[in-house]
Specification:
Helix content: 25-40%
Radius of gyration: 23 Å
Mean pLDDT: 92
Distance between the termini: 78 Å
Largest sheet: 6 strands, mixed
Low-confidence stretches: 430-441
Oligomer: single chain
Bound molecules: flavin-adenine dinucleotide
Number of strands: 25
Length: 441
């Protein structure tokens, strides 16, 4: 900074953290560049609705350029960041090097398959619009292929679905898949009975929604079962093949497998040379900067920071948003030559939806489950959606779906192939354990 020129702030990632940092920093006397490899900001909490044909992509995502259109000191670049040269204060993208005075890295997280990257094509995760559309394609296609098979006289068993991971994403996906099978598709097929489709949620730990109290976990599992989901806890997936999944020593045929079990930080975290945790999250200083570089901040899902009780902050949108706000405040304090302060997270509570009129909520010691928790979830998520038009359309779609059980975005786009299709969709979920051949001496 030469004292006259406006400081140049480069922000990597236009998710919850980066976008908030850009909007707040835009009120300072700074020149801001926000870089994202997508042209849109995705409202990830509603991705499962796209994956289950309840909403269309445009209703939960908005162009970054449009969101920031009123801030004339913010430029938007569609680019992928690949590296940093911190000693030269440069961000390296696929096509250029950009100078900065302040750097904010908010590139989020990706799926982790715990060393089994080969499972990814067989069991897609849910992180982007593309992921959601692929899951939607597979789910809807599975019913179509089952119908076709039945017409060919090859049995009329409806497809079986396996969701791996009992965190919030796995729970909401499994609950909504059950709703599709039991209600939305019920009267539309002539040769299979979609309501007999089986949905299995497999969780390696002892309970679903482990971040919530034991009581709420139990209530979530009960609500899932009422919706028609088979919940299997303390069961670790050991193999995924085209067709079957192996878990707890059992072979489970599955037309569609969805991965909701693991999260790893964006690989950009490891490019900074700063210490990272096992998930690749950057261990940030209390002011969210990295050691030795007060001008470089890491926020959101990519940052690892403990709260005042020593508990790590969760990878949720409110943490990313509050950290984005905090970075803007810190830059403002720097510009006014005031000392920096430590970030503190204000936890306003957690909500997880399970399906139609089913959810759990935890606000400090106050807990809620069922219909009213679901209403609270609905209200918060519509409130935080970007754009008045999106809020209105999502509200109308939800009301329509609630009263009619219909899902309006049931389009199969792309290939009509399903990995492993043809595996017998046995009605029995507990077929034979793996055969161990022992040789006699
Ligand atoms: C399915 C799902 C459901 C969720 N539900 C909830 C919920 O109900 N409530 C809640 O609070 N939280 C929820 N979360 C978590 C929440 O979405 C995240 O905590 C939050 O998005 C983190 O914000 P972020 O800014 O760190 O990263 P993100 O929002 O993930 O944004 C990262 C951005 O960086 C961009 N990017 C990544 N790498 C590069 C690169 N190399 N170059 C350029 N750009 C790059 C990406 O395109 C993306 O736009 C959910 C997450 C998922 C996946």
């Amino acid at each position: 900074m030469d004292g006259k020129a406006k400081p140049r702030v480069v922000i990597v990632g236009a998710g919850f953290g980066g976008l908030t940092a850009a909007r707040r920093t835009a009120h300072l006397s700074c020149q801001i560049t926000i870089i994202d490899r997508k042209n849109h900001h995705t409202f990830q909490p509603l991705l499962y609705q796209v994956a289950t044909a309840g909403l269309s992509p445009g209703e939960i995502a908005a162009p970054i350029r449009w969101i920031l259109r009123t801030h004339s000191n913010v430029e938007v670049l569609l680019e992928e960041v690949v590296d940093f040269k911190l000693d030269q204060k440069k961000v390296i993208t696929r096509s250029q090097a950009l100078d900065y005075d302040y750097l904010v890295i908010a590139s989020g997280a990706a799926h982790a398959y715990f060393g089994h990257q080969d499972w990814e094509p067989l069991a897609p995760g849910l992180k982007t619009i593309e992921d959601a559309l692929e899951i939607r394609r597979r789910v809807l296609l599975a019913f179509e292929l089952a119908e076709r098979q039945a017409v060919q006289g090859e049995g009329a068993a409806p497809p079986q679905f396996v969701v791996v991971g009992g965190g919030p994403t796995g729970v909401e996906l499994a609950g909504t898949l059950a709703e599709i099978a039991r209600h939305a598709l019920k009267h539309e097929f002539r040769n299979i009975q979609p309501q007999q489709a089986r949905i299995l949620l497999i969780e390696g730990g002892p309970r679903v929604l482990p971040a919530y109290s034991e009581d709420l976990s139990q209530k979530a599992a009960d609500q899932l079962r009422r919706l028609g989901v088979e919940v299997r806890t303390s069961s670790v997936v050991t193999q995924i093949e085209p067709g079957p999944v192996w878990a707890g020593g059992r072979r489970i045929p599955a037309a569609v497998v969805v991965w909701a079990a693991g999260v790893a930080a964006s690989p950009l975290g490891r490019k900074l040379g700063a210490p990272v945790d096992r998930a690749g999250r950057v261990l940030v200083q209390p002011d969210l900067s990295i050691p030795g570089h007060p001008e470089v901040f890491v926020i959101g899902d990519l940052a690892a920071l403990a709260d005042e009780n020593g508990k790590m902050l969760p990878g949720v949108a409110p943490v990313a948003i509050q950290q984005g706000e905090w970075v803007a405040k810190t830059i403002a304090r720097d510009l006014e030559h005031q000392p920096r302060r430590a970030f503190r997270y204000h936890d306003k509570g957690s909500l997880a939806t399970i399906g139609r009129a089913a959810a759990v909520a935890q606000f400090g010691k106050f807990e809620l489950s069922g219909y009213f928790a679901w209403l609270a979830w609905l209200f918060v998520h519509i409130l935080y959606l970007i754009g008045f038009r999106n809020r209105l359309i999502v509200m109308i779609n939800w009301a329509w779906a609630y009263f009619t059980y219909q899902r309006g975005a049931r389009l199969i786009t792309g290939s009509n192939e399903l990995p492993g299709w043809g595996e017998p969709q046995s009605a029995d979920w507990a077929p034979e354990p793996p055969v161990v051949v022992r040789r006699s001496a």
